[in-house]
Design a protein that fits this description.
The protein is α+β, with helices and mostly antiparallel strands and 290 residues long. The protein is built from eight helices and eleven strands. The strands form three sheets. Strands 1, 2, 3, 4, 6, 7 and 8 form a seven-stranded mixed beta sheet that branches. A two-stranded antiparallel sheet has the order 5-11. It has a two-stranded antiparallel sheet with strand order 9-10. A hairpin with a 2-residue loop joins strand 9 and strand 10 (244-248). The relative contact order is 0.19.
Length: 290
């Protein structure tokens, strides 16, 4: 196993508390979305968990959901209804994170991953990936994804803290982390909030909004592998996730094959990853529903 920090071995009690907390958050979010006619669906490890385990991947410590940008704007419009219990971190909000994936963070908790060390301190959170419209022409789509990926990387490298990942990293990774450190130093002096790269990225991702029938998760590092048509996404289906019926996209198998290949095969222990929080503080008692 690499010396890099990418996996945390939790106690049985810890992982159960993490899973219980996240499931509570998901149920709260589901109530909120139904109230405001927002369609969301499970993706990434949450989708994989639903298919392979009918719930959490045993070592996983987060939840991943996705929405279309038009529904994301609804979420922002009504986010104050969540304020007593949750905080939305996103590029369009006062509270921002080190990347372009919005998160639903539980107040009065702490969940600081290595990349956020000394930079951001959210609570335990659910990732909210945005399905963005991209060109319908495959070549134009790849060119567009490459351009957004460029600004995404610049933003992350100027905002994240890679220091905890240096031990055990390769020479190439160390160069990348060194560039990131220089980028953060420079940007702290000329654009501390990352507004330049953020504006460039947001201008791009809004370019095709509502104009095509093709989508991708442009904020995700694997966006080139995760392109879908409207019919791949809708109508939504449901899969059992623990004691909850999780919405998933129509052709969810395409998502899993494109991202994971033989997705039903368990990875060896040395290839298992999770958020590995640098700092973790959870609630002793569950909050009431929103």
């Amino acid at each position: 196993m690499s010396g890099q920090i990418h996996y945390k071995q939790y106690t049985d009690e810890q992982i159960q508390q993490i899973h219980d907390t996240l499931l509570m958050m998901l149920k709260d979010f589901d109530i909120f979305c139904k109230k405001h006619d927002i369609q969301y669906f499970g993706v990434a490890g949450t989708l994989l968990g639903a298919v392979r385990h009918q719930g959490y991947i045993p070592w996983d410590d987060d939840l991943d959901i996705a929405i279309l940008r038009k529904d994301y704007y609804k979420l922002l419009a009504y986010k104050d209804e969540l304020r007593e219990k949750y905080t939305i971190y996103s590029p369009e909000c006062d509270d921002k994170y080190y990347n372009f994936v919005p998160i639903l963070s539980l107040n009065h908790t702490k969940w600081v991953v290595p990349l956020a060390k000394d930079v951001f301190e959210p609570g335990i959170f659910i990732d909210i990936f945005i399905y963005e419209n991209i060109p319908d022409d495959p070549k134009e789509a790849q060119d567009f994804i490459n351009k957004t990926y460029f600004y995404r990387n610049l933003y992350v490298m100027s905002r994240a803290n890679f220091s905890l990942l240096v031990p055990g990293s390769t020479a190439v990774q160390k160069v990348k982390y060194g560039i990131s450190r220089v980028s953060r130093f420079v940007m702290d002096r000329i654009d501390k909030e990352g507004n330049i790269f953020r504006k460039k990225y947001l201008d791009l991702v809004n370019r095709y909004e509502g104009k095509t029938s093709s989508y991708s998760l442009l904020a995700d590092p694997y966006s080139k592998e995760l392109s879908f048509t409207y019919d791949d996404i809708f109508p939504l289906k449901t899969l059992r996730f623990e004691d909850f019926d999780l919405p998933v996209q129509n052709n969810y198998e395409k998502w899993l094959i494109n991202r994971y290949g033989d997705y039903m095969k368990l990875p060896p222990e040395e290839q298992r990853v999770n958020h590995c929080p640098y700092k973790m503080e959870l609630l002793e008692d569950k909050h009431e529903r929103v």
